[in-house]
Amino acid sequence: MEGIRFRSSSLLIPGEDLTCSIRHIGLLHARIDRAAGQEFVASVRGGGPALAGLARQFITLSRAQDFRMERIRIDHRIVPKQKVVVVTLEGGHALTGHVLNISASGAALLIDQTVELGATIRVGQKPARVMRHFTHGLGAAFVEPFEPGEVHEAMTL
Questions:
Q1: pTM of the entire structure?
Q2: Is 71's pLDDT higher than 90?
Q3: N or C: less crowded end of the chain, CB within 10 Å?
């Protein structure tokens, strides 16, 4: 499978025209064909030799990416009102984290320390395993998921 996965910081609507600024490529004019959450499929507007060159650049960039299929998220994510949480590492060292979002199955956290993938941590009182990294943070899957009804804005970890 070759290609570039697109993501938007906002929700897009099929039929909407879009101009993307893509690093190493430049501006791309497109129309949204399908959208699911923040991921989308678009048709490139324009054609001819420029489009063929653009396709070659996309393939080259896609081969340079660390492309791994992400698990499809099935649990609804929310942003809790209480965003500050204590994150305890395997050795018992505790540090302050910031909850970006939480679902029944896990949380996205900003923390000031890199934690190894697969490490077991405690998010508040909830044991979790580090599943992914992103700039200044991590995604953790809870060892025992919450019941969906337990996930709400007023919850505290």
A1: 0.55
A2: no
A3: N
